[in-house]
Design goal:
Blueprint: H1 3-11, H2 19-34, H3 48-58, H4 65-83, H5 86-90
Helix pairs in contact: 1-4, 2-3, 2-4
């Protein structure tokens, strides 16, 4: 599976992944599309969601984009195996 196919596969999962699974995917996707984390983390008290997203993105700083793409695809393949896709249900 290629990265672009993995992005499409996430949209077609038959069950919504957990918040932690979505956060993991977000951090990798953000790094792939925007590069290393910028700025400082939002204050948790004012923006808890933004804080967690920033932290997840920061985990991937300084890592090669190709490595993160491979990790993203592997995570999506795990989610597809766990949850299936909408297409699987139509068969």
């Amino acid at each position: 599976m290629l990265f672009e196919e993995a992005v499409d596969a996430v949209r077609n999962l038959s069950t919504k992944p957990t918040d932690m699974e979505l956060l993991t995917l977000y951090g990798m996707f953000k790094h792939i599309k925007s590069g290393d984390v910028t700025g400082s983390a939002p204050r948790f008290v004012l923006n808890p969601s933004g804080y967690y997203k920033w932290r997840e993105w920061a985990k991937h700083s300084s890592k090669p984009v190709e490595d993160i793409k491979l990790a993203y695809v592997a995570e999506v393949e795990r989610l597809v195996a766990a949850y299936g896709t909408v297409e699987d249900q139509l068969v």
